[in-house]
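Before the break, one more example. Copy the sequence into your notebook; we will annotate it together after we see the structure.
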Amino acid sequence: MNQYHILSASGGVDWNDQLADLHRQMTELSRSLQSQGLELRWVKVFVSDLANQQMSLHESPLFVEYISRVAHTVVEQPPLAAGVKIMLLAACACVANDCVQMESWRLSGADLSDGCHDSYNQAMLLFERYVASLERRGLSLCEHCLRTWIYVRDIDNNYAGMVRARNEVFARHGLTPSTHFIVSTGIGGATAVPGALVALDTLTADASTTHEVRFLEALDHLNRTHEYGVAFERGGLFRVGDEEFCLISGTASIDRGGRVLHEGDVLAQAARIRENIAALLADGGLTLADVCYYVVYVRDVSDRDAVCDYLRHNCADVPCVLVHAPVCRSNWLIEMECVARRRGSVQS
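Here is what the structure looks like once it is written out:
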């Protein structure tokens, strides 16, 4: 049994108080997990200003006692809850179930000093490091990578270079329109290194664990991504060891011709996204009632209240992370991703 928990710091207090509040919440969660025979597997940390927050985060009891002891990733995607500077998405599983690994790939200042200044070369370097790591473990990109998240600083100007690098790496490793791609989200986000334009997170299946995947389609709602020059799957239904779960890529307000729907209307776009996600889930035999959590990316912070109200009325029973993160097309105002499991097989 897997669980997902979203922890949000109390708003209206300073950064150190928010770290202390999350430390208290994580301590309570850890005790609860222990009583159920579960443990923390990985943590995703969303922060508002990483350049100014990274050092104190790493020195905090929250990080030292909990986050640093498991796989984790930290990304600057400011939470949109009022006054909140940090949120956590925590994945938990039974002690014996360790078949999927979360990894975080980041560029350092030294990488940039070697002339790696554009999004194409930075994305290429990150993917090459990931692929080399897979090969050292006897794994392959094509067979063992379950999902990626690619964060692009100033996405309006740097997305195209990342896409070109990803397309070239994928083609080199047998990921093509005639085989398959990988479930993915490509979204605005930043690290603490000012010149780093691209960052990468990955989910990888363990070599010793059997796994199967069926990629999901809903061609009456969304076309195949390669038709407009990008390389990712809309979603996948995975069986890894004893676990079955559905991963849905970052999904926008798009139609079956690849066109943006409802330009300028964030709520109509949100409704179309959920319609698209429902269609993808249906291809795997699931429904929106099976969603464990959403991560919701909003381009314009002034849309926060409207989107919060929409989520309260339409996703009230599903935990949500709501962050500021521009989507890859400027006229997409919102994007959503999710994890789903058949009802009764997960707690959130």
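The chain is about 30% helix and 30% strand. Residues 99-208 form a domain with the 60s Ribosomal Protein L30; Chain: A; fold (CATH 3.30.1330.40). Try to locate both features in your own notes.
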